[in-house]
Amino acid sequence: MRPGQRHEEIVRLVQKAGEVPVEDLAERLGVSRETIRRDLAWLDAAGRVRKFHGGARAQSARAAGLAAEGPFASRLADRPRAKRRIAARAAALLAPGDSLFIDTGTTTLMFAESLVGLSNLVVITNSWRIAATVSANASHKVFLIGGAYGADAGETLGRFAVDQIRRFRAGHAFLTIGAANEAAVMDFDAQETEIAQAMIERVERVTVLADTAKFARGGVFDVAPWTAIDRLVTDGEPPLAIGEAMAAAGVEIIDAG
Question: Which residues form the HTH deoR-type domain (predicted)?
Fold first, then answer.
């Protein structure tokens, strides 16, 4: 078995079980424990599993059988009209010269498309797709954050990405979420949560882009309480309890529907 094939099998086994010891992986794959340790170090650096002393665990909640988002490509096809309305409405909130973080998501990718028609923005993102899209307008200045590469969404993650985010300051952060409840906006992936939290720390105003389907889900990781969010751009009214919590936190709701 070639190293690349072995890596994919390790990821599959870890995601299925949630956590697997080095000894079990070595036995199942017919290689030495030292080989498995090197594989795990590589996969951890790439953001595909979380290595710990004696084994590896899934890097997100997917393998534990908890709620999770689907592949990026399939999410692009989910409610595209609503997402494009949200994206266009959010872009209208910006003015030439504004600086902003954009995290990785299907709605923020559509948001990036809406930014091409604006001018002289400074955009900092961990998504190569967003960076490439915004760069179609030569007046924009674009910074692409480096780090461990997540191939599915085309994003950079991990400690190196978070460290680089903390070198910037911007006026705005435009963020996607996986879910929301009365207490907080949420996500399904620990590393994506860390990226969003790092961006929130470095800006003056935080705008969340979320279609109403997000309010029907339960997330896994708290990104931020509503008190840390300034605006929500959505395509309809949130459920009553969430709307009341947002109002109490002073969150402005912008309806793109």
Answer: 3-58
Which DSSP letter does residue 30 get?
T
CB neighbours (10 Å) of residue 174? 30
Query: 248 Cβ partners below 8 Å, 6+ apart?
Result: 226
CB 83, CB 110: distance < 8 Å? yes
DSSP string, 123-161: EEESBHHHHHHHTTSTTSEEEEPPSEEETTTTEEEHHHH
Q: Is the dihedral of CA 167, 139, 175, 206 positive or negative?
A: positive
Phi-psi region of 56 (alpha: psi -120 to 50; beta: other; left: phi over 0): beta
Residue 84: strand, helix, or coil = helix
d(CA 151, CA 46): 9
Contact 223, 193 (CB under 8 A): yes
Q: What domains appear along the chain, each with residue ranges and CATH number?
A: 3-58 (1.10.10.10), 72-255 (3.40.50.1360)
Considering only CA atoms, which of 193, 202, 182 is closest in space to residue 251? 182
CA dist list (Å): 196 to 14, 24, 45, 183, 234: 25, 35, 19, 17, 18
pTM for this entry:
0.72
CA dist., res. 87 & res. 92, Å (int)? 9
Distance CA 22, CA 189 (A): 24
* CA quadruple 96, 166, 90, 129: dihedral sign: positive
155 bridge partner residues = 127, 150
The tens digit of pLDDT for each residue in 30-52 reads 999 999 998 898 887 767 788 88
